[in-house]
Amino acid sequence: DLVEPLIGPDIALFACSFITKLPGASKAAPWHEDATYWGGLAAGIEGCTLWLAVDRSIVDNGCMRVIPGSHLDRNRAHVPVDDPHRMLLDRQVDPTAFDASRAVDCILAPNTCSIHDAYVVHDSRPNRGGQRRCGFQMRYVPTTVNALNGHQMVLARGRDHAGNDYGNPTQVNERRLSNNPQKQLMARISEQLE
């Protein structure tokens, strides 16, 4: 319901995952646009990320920061990060392409969320506090987006407009596993544990 006013009634779940920053043991996420990292998996990227706070997300534990309005200037150049050992990603938005002094902290209580466009420039600092910061991110796209390279999305609502092969979230995506030995191993281990 939260996403429909932003991308329309025909919605696919593109990807989802937990992001956890442990106290004192986490890295920073450099300034980036999510869409840059979705590129090999879909054509015609439009969409948003809904970030649901599991824990309190505050400045001390590395909450997300966004540059308001930055989604209006899409596909900024990404360049290598200065120190890849301190960063979660190896590339960042070119620092000369935006004004970092305009950053706004996304402070969230547990069970609340933020939503940002796939092209919003955002980052997060390391967790320097004493509490874990965990969130569940759900990446939604309109069903006009065409999945590539065997990437399976889940039809969340409405109907498909791009001829995508939607996955069943309760089943293993065999096509993706066939090209990834590490994922094949994890699937075999998972089956043995059942």
Description:
The chain is of the alpha+beta class. It has a single domain (4-163), classed as q2cbj1_9rhob like domain (Jelly Rolls, Sandwich). Helix content is 14%, strand content 30%. It is built from four helices and 13 strands. The strands form four sheets. A five-stranded antiparallel sheet has the order 9-4-11-1-13. The two termini are 34 Å apart.
Chart the SSEs and their pairings:
Elements: H1 4-7, E1 11-21, E2 29-32, H2 34-38, E3 42-43, E4 48-53, E5 64-66, E6 78-80, E7 91-93, E8 104-105, E9 113-117, E10 122-124, E11 133-142, E12 146-147, E13 154-157, H3 174-178, H4 181-193
Antiparallel strand pairs: 1-11, 1-13, 2-10, 3-12, 4-9, 4-11, 5-8, 5-10, 6-7
Task: State the total count of DSSP E strands.
Answer: 13
Distance between the termini: 34 Å
CATH superfamily caption: q2cbj1_9rhob like domain
Structural class label: alpha+beta
- Written as H for each helix and E for each strand, in order along the chain, the element string is HEEHEEEEEEEEEEEHH
- Share of helical residues: 10-25%
**Whole-angstrom Rg:** 17 Å
CATH class: Mainly Beta
Shape descriptor reads: globular
Ranges where pLDDT stays below 50 over 5 or more residues in a row are: none
Q: How large is the share of residues in beta strands?
A: 25-35%
**Domains (count):** 1
The averaged pLDDT comes out at: 88
How is the biggest beta sheet arranged? 5 strands, antiparallel
What's the arrangement of strands in the largest beta sheet? 9-4-11-1-13
Please name the CATH architecture.
Sandwich
Number of helices: 4
CATH domain topology: Jelly Rolls
